Amino acid sequence: MTGKQLRARRERLGLPQTACADLLGVTRQTLWRWEREIVQIPPLKVAGIDAVLAAHKAGGTHKTRRRVVRAPIRPRTRPVKESSNAATHGRGQHHPA
User: Is residue 52 assigned to a domain?
Assistant: First the structure.
């Protein structure tokens, strides 16, 4: 299956890219790259794509993996560096034993 064939099938089924990507268990960007033949569809995925789209056409349900929604990545905060002048922080004081 080529990217052009995949796009034609998706459009015949009336599926938007996001819905089709959800059914196939990939991101919309991956589907977009396949359809424009920027990246070749992995041969092992082709059979799965056929099965999913055929099940959708028949009105059946097909089990797909869930998309993981990740929280935005927060920038890491830098650890506070210790001052080179330790005496100002009460460190380095000599206490007789």
Answer: yes
Residue 49 sits in a domain whose CATH number is 1.10.260.40
Query: How large is the C-alpha radius of gyration of the chain?
Result: 27
Give the whole-angstrom CA distance, residue 31 versus residue 18. Answer: 9
What's the half-sphere exposure (Cβ side, CA atoms, 13 Å) at 3? 14
Tens of pLDDT, residue by residue over 75-87, are: 667 666 666 555 5
| Tens-place pLDDT, residues 7-33 | 999 999 888 999 999 988 999 999 999
pTM for the full model?
0.57
Q: Does residue 89 lie within any of the structural domains?
A: no
d(CA 67, CA 70): 9
Q: What is the pLDDT of residue 40?
A: 93
CA distances from 40 to 4, 5, 23, 67, 93 (A): 11, 12, 19, 22, 67
Residue 64 to residue 47: CA distance in whole angstroms:
14
